[in-house]
Amino acid sequence: MQGNSLKGKTSLVTGSTSGIGLGIARKLAAQGSNIVFNGFGDLKEIEALQAGVRDEFGVQTAYHNADMSKPAEIEAMMKFAAERFGAVDVMVNNAGIQHVANVEDFPVEKWDAILAINLSSAFHTTRLALPAMKARNWGRIINIASVHGLVGSAQKSAYVAAKHGIVGLTKVTALENAHTGVTCNAICPGWVLTPLVQKQVDARAAQQGMSNDDAKKSLLAEKQPSGEFVTPEQLGDLAVFLCSDAASQVRGVAWNMDGGWVAQ
Question: Is this prediction's pTM over 0.85?
Answer without folding.
Answer: yes
